[in-house]
Amino acid sequence: MKNYHQAPAAVVMIRPHHFCPNPQTAADNAFQKRHQAPVDGDIKSKALAQVDTAAEILARHGVKVILFDDETRTTPDSVFPNNWFSTHENGAVGIYPMYCENRRRERREDILAQLGREYRVRQTFDYARFESQGLFLEGTGAMVLDHINRIAYAVKSKRMSDWLLNHFCRDFNYQAVAFHASDENNVDVYHTNVLMCIGTGFVMIGSELIKDGGERRRVMQNLQLGGREVIELTLAQIRQFAGNALELATAQGNILAISQTAFNSLNPEQISRIEKYVRIVPLDVSTIELAGGSIRCMLAGIHLPRKSESLAG
């Protein structure tokens, strides 16, 4: 059986022409800036420019970036495609049910069709139908996947149904590790991928947000499987999106895509520990971060085999 890889070498990114913080997501996203916006009112052009610059920098480092435009005015969060689909090395694709109604319009057949032309897609698991039952699982925002050890970590929230998480794990051969996490005001963390980042040889996590001791021990024990080094993040760093990063594979070695905001929050010791495993690539996505997500949310990793490659078992 082929070994699974943690870091994808290709990503999908969306160029949003009408970006703005989504009013429908503000109720349960404590990371979203409800009353903050650039005073010049030029948020749309700034967001688009930041996507283009980030895509250019990642491509320059050797990451394959597949760009799609979103010119509609009805999908303010389309810049975060990792929430509505995921791809896997065995040729499977997952399509996910979204909590907020206007986010459901982000799902696009043209993106899936383009991936199908370039990559081997063996099977599609479409969970979107569960929206009508009030069940949600917002992709690799709601789940942080340890592809190597086959563990799906998921914070309990309105955007993550335990039943659907277990359904996903049966379909994709993962073990579910679900847990509670909240900030100092006991507000639930809305997406797991703002709390933790799993790389090939290291993990970054704000474990202090997991208040239950038993749940914290279970999470930490699982994260250390395979000898991964665990790098603790503070609540303040989590608020600066330090957990919202993604390791990517390149021919010159793996990199860590992280926002400039997040990078600025790290201390020298943390940076040194991370750099044992990856080259850090900070990206300015500060305008997009007004919407409550950062660079990891903007990157839908492509784990599918190219048509010339064999499928993982």
Automatic annotation (TrEMBL):
Superkingdom, taxonomy of origin: Bacteria
TM helices/strands, residue ranges: none
SUPFAM superfamilies noted in UniProt: Pentein (SSF55909)
NCBIfam families on file: citrull_CtlX
Protein name: Amidinotransferase
